[in-house]
Write a structure and sequence with these properties.
The chain is of the alpha/beta class. It has four helices and 17 strands.
Length: about 280
């Protein structure tokens, strides 16, 4: 009896990760530099040299992944006339969790007048029985620019992993001067691999990515990117300067193979070194 009570208490009160990261850029004597910085808990930021006049930040989750009950809150701002690039140290992992426990990630991006922000996290890998909810909102000034990518992997194919029971909710909203430019939502419940096995949804895909590029030169890239994309991918202009790309792939390797040339084409500089390791 006492053992059962102890097991129930251990199950109910498990350690949870908390992380907060807030960063703003500012104009420095040699380009964009750190303005305000706050980091707490399991969210840490590392600042490698970028090799150009942009500020580059690498997000590190010291908890090693996200599971049920974890909470992360991120806020990044490229103030007027600065350039800010954000990436992650490695692929994020959403681990299995109890049915009533959901990990949450909330990200806010702000891009000021004449500023550019590149949101380039590496893959998020979903594990079986993961419970994960993430939201991202980006707000651009009238002439702000944004390069956004979110790669997603449904288990590790080489490890023979399956995703027969997951709960994943993802929402992305991008606004310019308060007007919606792009809104997208993905909800996966239950057997994700069975869902993507159908021809009309994924035709067996085990990885996907969404890319949004907001910049005056977006239309000039459309034809070349379409020609370079694999069969299970597409690119379209959803506004005069808003390019959207969706890629499906059989695994994370093929996804990267298709994705990296696209990001290199649209990026203002070379991709962060973390992407090349």
């Amino acid at each position: 009896m006492l053992t059962e009570i102890a097991d129930q208490q251990a199950e109910a009160v498990q350690p949870r990760a908390r992380g907060v990261a807030r960063l703003t850029s500012k104009v420095g004597p040699r380009g964009s530099v750190i303005g305000d910085l706050h980091q707490a808990g399991s969210a840490k930021l590392v600042f490698p040299r970028s090799g150009d006049d942009s500020l580059q930040a690498v997000l590190v989750n010291t908890a090693g992944g996200i599971t049920g009950g974890d909470r992360f809150d991120m806020s990044f701002e490229a103030v007027a006339n600065t350039s800010l690039t954000l990436t992650t140290q490695a692929a994020e992992r959403a681990y299995g969790a109890q049915a009533n426990e959901t990990g949450q990630l909330t990200t806010t991006l702000k891009i000021g007048a004449g500023a550019r922000l590149q949101w380039l996290p590496q893959e998020t890998i979903l594990f079986d029985q993961s419970r994960y909810c993430r939201t991202l909102r980006a707000d651009l000034a009238a002439d702000g620019q944004l390069l956004f990518v979110e790669p997603l992997v449904f288990g590790r194919t080489a490890m023979g992993e399956t995703l027969s029971d997951i709960a994943f909710n993802d929402r992305v909203e991008i606004y310019r001067d308060g007007v919606p430019l792009f809104c997208d939502a993905v909800t996966l419940n239950g057997d994700a691999l069975a869902h993507f096995a159908r021809a009309a949804t994924g035709n067996g895909a085990r990885a996907m990515a969404s890319v949004v590029y907001v910049a005056p030169e977006a239309p000039t890239h459309l034809a070349n990117i379409r020609n370079a994309l694999p069969v299970a991918a597409g690119a379209t202009l959803i506004g005069r300067d808003v390019l959207h790309i969706r890629i499906l792939a059989p695994d994370s390797f093929d996804l990267r193979t298709a994705l990296i040339p696209v990001l290199e084409t649209l990026s203002a500089a070379s991709l962060p070194k973390a992407w090349m390791i």
